Amino acid sequence: MKLLNIWKRIVKQPISLTRDKDAVVIIDGKEYKIEKIKYENGQMVGFEILEKIEGESRWISVYDRLPTREECWKNDGRFIVTNGQRVYQRHYFPELPYFFEPEPFRKEEDTYDRCVVGWQEMPEADINLVYM
Q1: Is the pTM of the predicted complex or chain greater than 0.85?
Q2: 126 CB burial (10 A radius; 0-12, 13-18, 19+)
Q3: Which of 4, 7, 68, 117 has the largest count of CB atoms under 10 Å?
Q4: Domain ranges, ordered by start, for the chain
């Protein structure tokens, strides 16, 4: 079942993101390292799973779930997200269909980020840090 889930995750990505690149697929909070993704006639035909990365991942796939209302309230709707190539901050509220970048003078739909594939909560501040 895990292999089929990994296949489904990779095949949804554009070829330009996965061709000649390694990938990490997150399923149920566990990370799997994928290499040598093979294509024939523009269709994915295979890949190698080198290893399961030990430990729990903090990344949550948007295909598994989106933030809950409680998670949104906890961090004022701010989350760390990834599009598979870079990590950045976006906002999310359950009433809206996507993560978004708040922009005061743009139409709401222009700020939706449809490229997010994974998210995690903002880290808690280290309150023991004291500047002198």
Answers
A1: no
A2: exposed
A3: 117
A4: 2-53, 60-121
pLDDT (tens, 9 = 90+) of the chain, 132 residues, equals: 467 777 777 777 777 777 777 777 776 667 777 777 777 887 777 777 766 655 556 788 888 889 999 998 888 889 989 887 888 889 898 887 788 887 665 565 566 788 888 899 887 765 555 554
Q: What is the 3-state secondary structure (H, E, C) of 70-97?
A: HHHHHCCCEEEEECCCCEEEEECCCCCC
Instruction: Quote the DSSP letter at residue 118.
Output: E
Structure token pair of residue 1: 């079942």
What is d(CA 79, CA 88) in angstroms, rounded to the nearest whole number?
8
